[in-house]
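Box 3.1 A note on notation
Throughout this textbook, protein chains are presented in two layers. The first layer is the amino acid sequence; the second is a token string describing backbone geometry. Keep the layers aligned when reading.
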Amino acid sequence: METLSYATFSEAFQNRWAAARVPLNGTIEVTRRCPLECLHCYNNLPMTDGGARDRELTLAEHCRLLDELADAGCLWLLYTGGEIFARRDFLDIYTYAKKKGFIITLFTNGTLITERIADCLAAWRPFAIEITLYGRTRDTYERLTGIPGSYEKCLRGIRVLLDRGLPLALKTVAVSTNRHEVFDMQRFAEEDLGVKFKFDSMINPRIDCSQSPLEVRLSAEECVALDLADARRADEWVKFAEEVRCAIERKPIADTIYQCGGGVSSFAIDPYGGMSICVISEAHKYNVRDGFRAGWEQFLRRERARKVTRPTKCAACVLKAVCGMCPANGELENGDPEAPVDWLCRTAHLRAMALGIPIVPHGDCEYCEGGLAHPALAESAARVRTTTPIAHTPATVTKDGRRFLHVVATDPASGCASCSAH
């Protein structure tokens, strides 16, 4: 009998239903309250914020929402926060969702996980649990989280989950505070614990418009240096970029603002019932207390159909795969969904130069050849290649001059939870 990997099944299943506009993937923030005070976080609120707690969807409202999602054809759910276990009734929400048959992923920092919580998760097994590890040492971890004792609480949470054989993976966000420990964290996860590990350098402003998280965001050169120092990651970027380039060549660029899966097969709901294209999109929301179906069929359909109002250098750029620019990022950083985010553009072009990814001219871009910022970026690329040699087997050059790496089978280097399969 022929068998398929889960990834192959998931991709085929979602592609099959994409044209039907079924809300297959949902991201639900159950709270923005969190016991940590991370310097980079875009949405955390104090555990004692009673106003935020009072505005959150109640248990009954969550159950009613889950009934509606099941009826609408939703299959995959991601529960995130804040910290999901900051809600004392989260396990009630979670077990109700499990009984409805959803395939559930949990994002947590692990610091509030107890034996009781782990026992419940073992009895009602999730598809995946991802814990964010903020440092390999106590000093680094707690400098980033701002809470003494949080490092040991995180490690305890990891241990109780592993003791029960739960499907755990670790990840981190690479910032100036912990970048020197990223690969120590990777070794700890993969070699000591035997679990998967991934990291990302993407940092957004806070959803309340504060730019404070950007104070710990890596420079473009620091970010790309981390890419080159990891064999798998470097290969993933090149493979992903080539796949997206081919897809863009096959299919004309749409004239809508959104190009992701948001509003087509995925959606996000904040702790207060606000539904939007994705978790970082705050500009336009619909209250699901008024009914999920109407929000999906009317509000998100209109959001997804919004047209671009002016040409930008992003429209024809084939580096989107190694960039991460999207309307939600533009809104947060520039107050404009169509305004390119400079850090993303600079990092994408530097990544392409360093990895040998072809850069196709795409309008008035200062980082492309001939642009004002190109010479300095080329120097930066040369410096990164010299100080951080690409850690993979030698590249191969095809007849048409394209360079590709020997790609290993692993998860994508980066991705958006709202528009990617969980």
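The radius of gyration is 21 Å. The chain has two domains: 20-218+258-304, 236-253+310-422.
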